[in-house]
Amino acid sequence: MPLTVDEAFQRYQQEWPRIDKAAKATATHLFNRAARKGIACQVTSRAKEVSSFNTKVYRKRYTDPWNQITDKAGVRLVVPHRGLLDPALEVIKESLEIIEVQDDRDAHDDQYRLRYPRLHVQAVMFGKEEDPDGIPYQCEIQLRTEAVDLWSRMSHRLLYKPGVTPPTDVSRSLYRLIALVELYDLEVERGVEAMAQHPELVRSNLLLDMAEQVYRTFTDHPYSRDLSHDILDVLAQTIDDENAYGERLAEFAERYRSRIQRAYADYGPTSDHFLKHGRYMLASQPESLIIFERLAHARFRLKSTWDGQLPETMLTDMAQIWGIAL
């Protein structure tokens, strides 16, 4: 028998902490899996606020609110451009049990009408945390580009939050912006493809993207991109296959996660070593992960390549952090 409105509300109130915890675990899992594939993205999560749950039940007049509200938890995965949407969707499909995919990106039922390019996935959350009935919690995953995400967040506040129907001219102006969103995404994708035609730029950028994605699983502290490119120009000379290296780096980070976490805690951007003495600055950079991996698996090649191109103390400091001698 379906729960009543009051029963569903009370149950959601009791289970909210577990649902929120599962949503956060799902977001972390997807971020890590995307990082292993070298996909740049931002992943956030939230469990629907208890008050919002109650309001939705009231507005929608659900007869079985507990089962009919499928977005008790939401995860948002945002990629820089639309060329990464399909790879990110594959990561989701490989990582979670999928219930349904709603993909309206290519839906053109009216050539004169602009619409939100919805790409939503209903999935069982990571860890398969279950409700008291033994049913795994689900979440709705919204997969967007940065441009679509910006438009969606802004339009949602104006179109759906006031509780009244917005004026026609407001709705029309917001949907006209979709054309600019499409144009922006097309131009970004074109720029990425054009950059790929310049190997001297791609090599460093590719390694930085790989390193940053894994680095963000340890810290979100800002870093110097200029310094990164100076270091990566040298590190790239020690790596034979950049395209396959992302998987190797991700596996290395998972294998030595505790050791790397200790290294960043002791020498990273918030450590006493860095704040008081200003040393070990590479431990505050994403390329530090590549340095650690190279020290572990190709230290003599790394040292011979490094010598004469970059300050020796930078490398010896990193070797000290990793606990080996050069």
Overall description:
By secondary structure, the chain is an alpha+beta fold. The model has no long low-confidence stretch (mean pLDDT 85). It has 14 helices and 5 strands. Helix content is 58%, strand content 10%. Helix 1 packs across helix 4, helix 7 packs parallel to helix 9 and helix 12 crosses helix 14. The protein folds into 2 domains: 141 residues, Beta Polymerase, domain 2 (2-Layer Sandwich); 124 residues, no CATH class.
Chain-wise SSE layout:
Elements: H1 5-36, E1 42-47, H2 50-60, H3 65-68, E2 73-79, H4 85-95, E3 98-103, E4 119-124, E5 138-145, H5 146-159, H6 168-195, H7 199-215, H8 225-235, H9 242-255, H10 257-267, H11 272-277, H12 288-297, H13 299-306, H14 312-322
Parallel strand pairs: 2-5
Antiparallel strand pairs: 1-2, 3-4, 4-5
Which fold name is given in CATH as the topology of the largest domain? Answer: Beta Polymerase, domain 2
The radius of gyration computed from the alpha-carbon positions, rounded to a whole number of angstroms, is: 24 Å
Instruction: Indicate the overall shape.
Output: globular
Number of E strands: 5
Number of helices: 14
Report the span from N to C terminus.
Answer: 70 Å
Instruction: Specify the CATH architecture of the largest domain.
Output: 2-Layer Sandwich
Strand content: 5-15%
The name of the CATH superfamily of the largest domain reads Beta Polymerase, domain 2
The mean pLDDT is 85
**Computed structural class:** alpha+beta
Main pleated sheet: 5 strands, mixed
Name the CATH class of the largest domain: Alpha Beta
Number of domains: 2
Strand order of the largest sheet: 1-2-5-4-3
- Topology pattern, helix = H, strand = E: HEHHEHEEEHHHHHHHHHH
Which bin fits the share of residues in helices? 55-70%
Pfam family, one: RelA_SpoT
Protein name: RelA/SpoT domain-containing protein
Domain RelA/SpoT: 45-166
